[in-house]
Protein backbone atom coordinates (compact mmCIF):
# COMPACT_ATOMS: atom_id res chain seq x y z
CA UNK A 1 0.00 0.00 0.00
CA UNK A 2 1.47 3.39 -0.95
CA UNK A 3 2.09 5.93 1.78
CA UNK A 4 -0.81 8.36 1.35
CA UNK A 5 -1.59 11.84 2.66
CA UNK A 6 -4.76 13.92 2.41
CA UNK A 7 -3.86 17.63 2.33
CA UNK A 8 -6.87 19.90 2.77
CA UNK A 9 -8.22 23.24 3.91
CA UNK A 10 -11.77 23.65 5.17
CA UNK A 11 -13.48 26.79 6.44
CA UNK A 12 -17.01 25.52 7.08
CA UNK A 13 -16.56 21.75 7.23
CA UNK A 14 -17.41 20.50 3.73
CA UNK A 15 -13.83 19.86 2.63
CA UNK A 16 -13.03 18.38 6.05
CA UNK A 17 -15.93 15.93 5.67
CA UNK A 18 -14.62 14.85 2.25
CA UNK A 19 -11.01 14.63 3.49
CA UNK A 20 -12.05 12.45 6.43
CA UNK A 21 -14.01 10.15 4.11
CA UNK A 22 -10.98 9.82 1.81
CA UNK A 23 -8.65 9.10 4.73
CA UNK A 24 -11.08 6.62 6.24
CA UNK A 25 -11.43 4.72 2.97
CA UNK A 26 -7.72 4.60 2.17
CA UNK A 27 -5.95 4.56 5.52
CA UNK A 28 -4.28 7.85 4.58
CA UNK A 29 -2.88 10.30 7.08
CA UNK A 30 -4.29 13.83 7.12
CA UNK A 31 -2.70 17.26 6.95
CA UNK A 32 -5.06 20.14 7.63
CA UNK A 33 -3.87 23.48 6.26
CA UNK A 34 -4.44 26.11 8.95
CA UNK A 35 -3.80 29.77 8.20
CA UNK A 36 -2.34 31.66 11.15
CA UNK A 37 -4.94 34.35 10.52
CA UNK A 38 -8.07 32.80 9.00
CA UNK A 39 -11.38 34.20 7.89
CA UNK A 40 -14.14 34.08 10.52
CA UNK A 41 -16.58 31.50 9.19
CA UNK A 42 -19.37 32.83 11.43
CA UNK A 43 -19.44 36.28 9.81
CA UNK A 44 -21.58 37.13 6.79
CA UNK A 45 -18.60 38.92 5.21
CA UNK A 46 -16.63 35.67 4.83
CA UNK A 47 -17.47 35.44 1.12
CA UNK A 48 -16.41 39.02 0.48
CA UNK A 49 -13.05 38.59 2.24
CA UNK A 50 -12.45 35.13 0.80
CA UNK A 51 -13.20 36.31 -2.73
CA UNK A 52 -10.95 39.34 -2.28
CA UNK A 53 -8.10 37.11 -1.09
CA UNK A 54 -8.48 34.88 -4.16
CA UNK A 55 -8.60 37.81 -6.59
CA UNK A 56 -5.55 39.41 -4.91
CA UNK A 57 -3.78 36.01 -5.12
CA UNK A 58 -3.10 36.12 -1.37
CA UNK A 59 -1.00 33.43 0.22
CA UNK A 60 -1.84 33.31 3.93
CA UNK A 61 0.88 32.16 6.28
CA UNK A 62 0.14 28.63 7.47
CA UNK A 63 0.74 27.05 10.85
CA UNK A 64 3.64 24.59 10.93
CA UNK A 65 2.95 21.10 9.59
CA UNK A 66 3.32 17.95 11.66
CA UNK A 67 3.87 15.93 8.46
CA UNK A 68 6.22 16.38 5.50
CA UNK A 69 4.30 15.98 2.21
CA UNK A 70 7.55 14.88 0.53
CA UNK A 71 7.48 11.67 2.59
CA UNK A 72 4.33 10.40 0.83
CA UNK A 73 3.80 8.55 -2.45
CA UNK A 74 0.21 9.65 -3.06
CA UNK A 75 -1.34 13.00 -2.22
CA UNK A 76 -5.04 13.83 -2.17
CA UNK A 77 -5.19 17.64 -2.28
CA UNK A 78 -8.36 19.65 -1.86
CA UNK A 79 -10.43 22.41 -0.40
CA UNK A 80 -13.30 24.76 -1.15
CA UNK A 81 -13.94 26.82 -4.26
CA UNK A 82 -13.80 30.56 -3.63
CA UNK A 83 -14.45 33.09 -6.40
CA UNK A 84 -14.11 30.48 -9.17
CA UNK A 85 -10.72 29.31 -7.93
CA UNK A 86 -9.21 27.14 -5.24
CA UNK A 87 -8.80 28.75 -1.81
CA UNK A 88 -5.76 30.81 -0.76
CA UNK A 89 -4.53 28.24 1.78
CA UNK A 90 -4.05 25.75 -1.07
CA UNK A 91 -2.22 28.47 -3.04
CA UNK A 92 0.21 28.87 -0.13
CA UNK A 93 0.72 25.11 0.17
CA UNK A 94 1.31 24.69 -3.56
CA UNK A 95 3.79 27.56 -3.56
CA UNK A 96 5.81 26.35 -0.57
CA UNK A 97 5.45 22.59 -0.97
CA UNK A 98 4.65 22.11 -4.65
CA UNK A 99 4.62 18.36 -5.19
CA UNK A 100 6.68 17.02 -8.08
CA UNK A 101 6.76 13.49 -9.43
CA UNK A 102 3.98 12.35 -7.08
CA UNK A 103 0.71 10.60 -7.71
CA UNK A 104 -1.91 13.25 -6.99
CA UNK A 105 -5.72 13.33 -6.83
CA UNK A 106 -7.54 16.66 -6.53
CA UNK A 107 -10.88 17.35 -4.87
CA UNK A 108 -13.00 20.44 -4.37
CA UNK A 109 -16.14 21.21 -2.41
CA UNK A 110 -18.37 23.97 -3.69
CA UNK A 111 -21.83 25.40 -4.05
CA UNK A 112 -21.76 25.96 -7.80
CA UNK A 113 -19.81 25.17 -10.95
CA UNK A 114 -16.28 24.07 -10.02
CA UNK A 115 -14.85 23.71 -13.55
CA UNK A 116 -12.66 26.85 -13.58
CA UNK A 117 -11.41 26.16 -10.07
CA UNK A 118 -10.53 22.54 -10.91
CA UNK A 119 -8.76 23.61 -14.10
CA UNK A 120 -6.69 26.08 -12.07
CA UNK A 121 -5.88 23.48 -9.43
CA UNK A 122 -4.89 20.88 -12.02
CA UNK A 123 -2.65 23.49 -13.66
CA UNK A 124 -0.83 23.95 -10.33
CA UNK A 125 -0.34 20.19 -10.08
CA UNK A 126 1.51 19.83 -13.40
CA UNK A 127 4.67 17.76 -13.05
CA UNK A 128 2.81 15.04 -11.19
CA UNK A 129 0.82 12.02 -12.26
CA UNK A 130 -2.71 13.32 -11.80
CA UNK A 131 -4.79 10.28 -10.95
CA UNK A 132 -8.09 12.14 -11.25
CA UNK A 133 -10.30 14.74 -9.68
CA UNK A 134 -13.67 14.96 -8.00
CA UNK A 135 -16.06 17.65 -6.84
CA UNK A 136 -18.56 17.57 -4.03
CA UNK A 137 -21.51 19.97 -3.98
CA UNK A 138 -22.16 21.29 -0.46
CA UNK A 139 -21.51 17.91 1.18
CA UNK A 140 -22.27 19.15 4.68
CA UNK A 141 -25.69 20.43 3.59
CA UNK A 142 -26.84 18.25 0.66
CA UNK A 143 -27.02 14.46 0.50
CA UNK A 144 -24.23 14.16 3.04
CA UNK A 145 -24.14 10.38 3.30
CA UNK A 146 -24.32 9.96 -0.47
CA UNK A 147 -21.39 12.34 -0.94
CA UNK A 148 -19.35 10.66 1.79
CA UNK A 149 -19.86 7.34 0.00
CA UNK A 150 -18.90 9.00 -3.31
CA UNK A 151 -15.68 10.31 -1.71
CA UNK A 152 -14.80 6.88 -0.33
CA UNK A 153 -15.41 5.11 -3.66
CA UNK A 154 -13.50 7.76 -5.61
CA UNK A 155 -10.53 7.57 -3.21
CA UNK A 156 -10.32 3.80 -3.51
CA UNK A 157 -10.51 4.11 -7.31
CA UNK A 158 -7.65 6.65 -7.29
CA UNK A 159 -5.42 4.38 -5.20
CA UNK A 160 -6.13 1.43 -7.52
CA UNK A 161 -4.53 3.33 -10.43
Could you name the key traits of this structure?
six-stranded mixed beta sheet; 161 residues; Rossmann fold; alpha/beta
Notes on the protein architecture:
The protein has 161 residues and is of the alpha/beta class. The chain has one domain (4-159): Rossmann fold (3-Layer(aba) Sandwich). Helices cover 36% and strands 23% of the residues. The protein has five helices and six strands, in the order E-H-E-H-E-E-H-E-H-E-H. The protein has helices spanning 14-26, 46-55, 88-96, 115-124, 144-159, and strands at residues 4-8, 29-32, 74-82, 85-86, 103-110, 129-137. Strands 1, 2, 3, 4, 5 and 6 form a six-stranded mixed sheet that branches. Helix 4 links the parallel strand 5 and strand 6. Helix 1 packs across helix 5 (144-159). The longest helix is centred in the last third of the chain and has 16 residues, at 144-159. The protein is globular and about 45 Å long. It starts with a strand and ends with a helix. The mean pLDDT is 90.
Amino acid sequence: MPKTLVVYYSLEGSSKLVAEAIAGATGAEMLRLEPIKDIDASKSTKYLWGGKDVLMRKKPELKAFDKNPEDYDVLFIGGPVWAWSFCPALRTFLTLHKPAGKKVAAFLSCGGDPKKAMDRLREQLEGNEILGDATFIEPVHKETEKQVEKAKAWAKEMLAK
